Amino acid sequence: MSKSMTFTTKTIKAANAFSTALEMQSNIWREKDMYIEGIGKVSKEKVSKILTREALEAIAEGEMTWEEAGNAYKYREVSRLSEIGQNGDLFAANYNRIPDKLKQELTPKDLAELVMAFYQCYGDGKAAGKEE
Fold this sequence. Notes:
The chain has seven helices and two strands. By secondary structure, the protein is mainly alpha-helical. It has a two-stranded antiparallel ribbon. Helix 4 (66-81) packs across helix 7 and helix 5 crosses helix 7. The radius of gyration is 22 Å and the shape is elongated. The mean pLDDT is 84.
């Protein structure tokens, strides 16, 4: 196979990959905004900034929905607002105590306060156990 043939084949493959990527990109952004319950209207661009490249590809390929991406965005916002949000495992343990229905309905600020209430309940119970 000649070098020019190899170059042409590589060029065609690259052009096809680029075309596919552009098509995926346009499918992702058909609507610019999305609605996240408890937050309201948010631009997909803003939500996409917290996502990994793999997550964006999963959305483009239909393996992940924008609703799931919105849930990840909301979780990130709650973590940012919570006093214990920087401590991943501790935050997650308390966040996971919240019923899913409330995670959907409440605002990130309200959820952050609820996370702190669970955290304080645990601390209060632990302290009370030591006093006995």
